[in-house]
Description:
The structure holds 2 protein chains of 2 kinds. Chain A is built from no helices and 11 strands. By secondary structure, chain A is mostly beta strands. Chain A starts with a strand and ends with a strand. Chain B contains no helices and 11 strands. In chain B, the strands form 2 sheets. In chain B, strands 2, 4, 5, 6, 9, 10 and 11 form a 7-stranded mixed beta sheet that branches. In chain B, strands 1-3-8-7 form a 4-stranded antiparallel beta sheet, with no helix packed on it. The termini of chain B are far apart. The relative contact order of chain B is 0.34.
Amino acid sequence: QKEVEQNSGPLSVPEGAIASLNCTYSDRGSQSFFWYRQYSGKSPELIMFIYSNGDKEDGRFTAQLNKASQYVSLLIRDSQPSDSATYLCAVKRSFGNEKLTFGTGTRLTIIP
Amino acid sequence: GAVVSQHPSRVICKSGTSVKIECRSLDFQATTMFWYRQFPKQSLMLMATSNEGSKATYEQGVEKDKFLINHASLTLSTLTVTSAHPEDSSFYICSARASETQYFGPGTRLLVL
């Protein structure tokens, strides 16, 4: 079992709809969770992080965390063509210098 | 805030030469930086964790004598690819830790001929 799993996609969503990206992790000791967006040929950029169970909203983005189910998701409302990218889920086991463990990413395409 | 730069953005070199890549945190101090490598259509692979003032911690399978890391100050880490070969051609990306979050540099695309 991979430490962090994501559906590789591609996930196609019509413009204006909600895109839902999912991620599961295997280590129950994981404490912090991150979503990065990576455009083709570019480096990842941070979208959101979440530490506590529940929802965290930032503009059109909502991160959802369920530690009991070891599940974290990212919702993108009112999807735009500029949201087309690969979305990387990353998990960190503890607070401090611990490294991030990345999923393989989900490729999202927003269809105009 | 939390801006990370890398230099150069792109480099082409001959096989057998060494290449140095710089990673700088521009508006914050980073005691910890990370070096990743990404091959086309593949995920990020962590190569090493760089800690200011101490030796880097390398991931399993990464040759520390080939990929030299120096984190001499709180804003600068360097990765030197020694005796580069065509199979080292890749996208090298650094990140710096600010609080509990990693911020990535723009990456360096290395092509070894």
